[in-house]
Amino acid sequence: PFQRGAAVRIVLVGPMGAGKSTVGSVLADQLGLARFDSDQLFVRVHGPIPDYFQAHGEPAFRAAEEELVGEVLSHHEPFVLSLGGGSVLSAQTRSRLGRGCRVVNLVVDEHTALDRLDGGVGRPVLAGDPVRNWLRILREREGLYREISHDTIDTSGLSTEQVAHAIIERM
Ligand code: S3P
User: Fold this and answer.
1) Domain extents in the chain
2) Taking Cα atoms as reference points, which of 42, 44, 83 lies closest to residue 60?
3) What is the distance in A from the centroid of ligand 1 to the CA of 46?
4) Is the Cβ atom of 49 under 6 angstroms away from ligand 1?
5) Where does this protein hold ATP (predicted)?
6) What would the pLDDT profile of 6-49 be if each residue is shown by its tens digit?
7) Angle, CA 75 vertex, CA 53 and CA 167 arms, to 5°
8) At a CB cut-off of 8 Å and minimum separation 6, what does 171 contact?
9) Does residue 19's CB lie within 6 angstroms of at least one atom of ligand 1?
10) Which CATH topology does 9-163 take?
């Protein structure tokens, strides 16, 4: 059984609206672990994500995201880390996750996801046609989520606590 405060590195991946941030904070509380969230780290260092996208473009965002995630992975342990949905696009991040992290893929259907995201507010990659873009982006990334994860949990219809519980139970 899982020991509170054990030396684990739990990383939550999956599309926008899967609940990575909310599940990450509940999980960290329950397990007595430090908690990191790549989007929050990003905002703290670089300001709001939509503003950054507009000023510098997506490639600059990805480079900055990769660097922040790399810092967490190399300097901290144990932890629960919630990653922005596109973090897995980085080969460097994927390879770093392969070293000693338990990666959990949170999946969700598009309607539940967009409900949780308030229709896509603050997510520049969804701008225009949020449902269509969400589905297209998922198709581009689902192979990567699957490839790097040890466990997959469908969060549609589950509460944050239920997802956290499922993650702990299956470790
Ligand atoms: C993105 C997901 C967002 C955020 C940025 C880009 C993506 O994070 O990093 O808006 O490309 O999927 P969440 O997955 O936490 O919404």
Assistant:
1) 9-163
2) 42
3) 15
4) yes
5) 17-22, 123
6) 678 999 999 999 999 999 999 999 999 999 999 999 999 999 99
7) 80
8) 2, 8, 102
9) no
10) Rossmann fold (3.40.50)
Please say whether the beta carbons of 107 and 155 come within 8 A: yes
**Atom 16 in ligand 1: which residue has the minimum CA distance?**
16
CB distance 123 to ligand 1 below 6 Å: yes
Closest ligand 1 atom, CA of 15? 14
CA of 3 to the centre of ligand 1 (A): 31
Say whether the ipTM exceeds 0.85. yes
What are the residues facing 82 on neighbouring strands? 12, 37
d(CA 80, CA 26): 10
Whole-model pTM?
Answer: 0.96
